[in-house]
Amino acid sequence: MEYAIIALLLGSIGLLVYSFYKEKDQVTQLEVKMENLSIQILQEIHQVQKAQKTMKPQTSRKATETRRAKEDLKEQKEGA
User: Fold this and answer.
1) CA–CA separation, 6 vs 2, rounded Å?
2) Cα distances (angstroms) measured from residue 23 to each of 2, 13, 35, 55, 74
3) CA separation (Å) from 55 to 48, 58, 61?
4) Measured at the alpha carbon of residue 7, what is the angle toward residues 5 and 9, in degrees to the nearest 5?
5) DSSP string, the chain
6) In angstroms, rounded to a whole number, what is the distance separating the alpha carbons of residues 49 and 43?
7) Rounded CA gap, 59 and 27, in Å?
8) Global pTM?
9) 20-26: which pairs have CB atoms within 8 A and are 24 or more residues apart?
10) Per-residue pLDDT tens over the stretch 23-57
């Protein structure tokens, strides 16, 4: 009976130690996944900012053209 209790105690301690090692592996994997996700997000932000910079001159040109067209219409209305 004493041997059975000692064997169960040693088995439980062994399982406890094993679970800690297994948990460390899972935590490490989760850290790697989070790092990869943050890198992907930063890359996407960079791409969006880059696209925004290239589109900004186009947008400002269109806004200038629209403003000039409105001013021309206003002058035509005032002149007529």
Assistant:
1) 6
2) 32, 15, 18, 48, 72
3) 10, 5, 10
4) 70
5) -HHHHHHHHHHHHHHHHHHHHHHHHHHHHHHHHHHHHHHHHHHHHHHHHHHHHHHHHHHHHHHHHHHHHHHHHHHHHHH-
6) 10
7) 47
8) 0.49
9) none
10) 888 888 899 999 999 999 999 999 999 988 887 76
